[in-house]
Amino acid sequence: MEDRNPIISFKGADIINGEATVIYGLDMDVYPGDFVYIVGKVGTGKTSIIRTIIAENPLHKGSGSSCGYDLVDIREKDIPFLRRKMGVVFQDFQLLMDRSVEENLLFVLRATGWKSEAEMQSRIKTVLEAVGMERKAHKMPHQLSGGEQQRIAIARSLLNDPQVIIADEPTGNLDNETADGIMKLLTGINREKGTAIVMVTHNRQIFEKYPGRVMVCRDETCIEQKEEDVIDLELTI
């Protein structure tokens, strides 16, 4: 029977940025296989939701859980274990520029407890093939285009076979054609592997071309839009 327990869940959660509350009363459930967009203007709390999901921002009011961890009571020492259950992709790639692609991926595997060199090499080969970058393992990040760097970042997010990929504006620094390739890659991973995706974007064209559930942040709220709702163009310029 399909698992319908949510991977990520918020109930009446107030989301903060620093000491300021940016979203009141967030209700959100993300289930296995979901593709969920979080959209809205700059400053409406989109990234603050992401930071709460990965336990970078604390949760003081309401309830929340992420990959089996209670976000209200999570202990500092458990945060690395939470993050091993998810992949995170950033707008600016966040690759280590003084290391090759292979060394970037090895760094993550070693940091998350892998020991066997043979198993690590096999896993690196698998994730690079998954993103079409198997011939780039020995390249340095500066030798890659922006789109190729983002593919490596997505490969990195897949290393520990995550339950969910959290993507914060993953196409924000890319031209339209390259962004389209990244979206095809992410939607393919979602469809073929069943990996849930939570993606922040302000690009309306993306979530219209690649449909998913849409959470709209505005006026200190974040509410899921129904299919029949019209999303205000001004929200996603």
Notable features of this structure?
about 240 residues, alpha/beta, six-stranded mixed beta sheet, four-stranded antiparallel beta sheet, 7 helices, about 25% strand
Major pleated sheet: 6 strands, mixed
Order of helical and strand elements: EEEHEEHEHHHEHEHEE
Which residue ranges are poorly predicted, with pLDDT under 50 across at least 5 consecutive positions? none
Number of alpha- plus pi-helical segments = 7
Amount of beta strand: 25-35%
Class of secondary structure makeup: alpha/beta
Q: For the terminal residues, how far apart are their CA atoms? A: 41 Å
Number of strands: 10
Give the integer mean of the pLDDT values. Answer: 90
Please estimate the helix content.
25-40%
Strand order of the largest sheet: 6-7-8-3-9-10
Q: What is Rg?
A: 18 Å
Shape: globular
Q: Can you offer a commentary on this structure?
A:
- The protein has 237 residues and is an alpha/beta fold.
- It has a domain at 97-147 and 154-160.
- It contains seven helices and ten strands.
- The chain has helices spanning 46-53, 79-84, 101-111, 117-130, 146-158, 176-193, 204-209; strands at residues 8-17, 20-30, 35-40, 63-66, 69-70, 86-90, 164-168, 196-201, 213-218, 221-225.
- The strands form two sheets. A six-stranded mixed sheet has the order 6-7-8-3-9-10, sandwiched between helices. It has a four-stranded antiparallel sheet with strand order 2-1-4-5, with helices on one face.
